[in-house]
Amino acid sequence: MSDNKIVKAIKDKSKDLDVEMSFFDHIEILRWHLIRASIAVLVFTILAFVYYDWVFDNVIMGPMRTDFWTYRMLCKLGDYLQRPGFCIDKIPGKIINTEMAGQFTLELNSALIIGITLGFPYLLWEVWRFIKPALHEKERKAASGFVIYASLLFLLGIMFGYFIVAPESISFLANLSVSDKIENMFTVDSYLSSVATLTLATGVVFQLPIIVYILSTLGILTPAFMRNGRRFAIVGILVISAVITPTPDMLTMSIVSVPLFILYEVGIVVAGVVEKRKLKRQDQLVKTQ
Question: GO molecular function terms here (predicted)?
Answer without folding.
Answer: proton motive force dependent protein transmembrane transporter activity
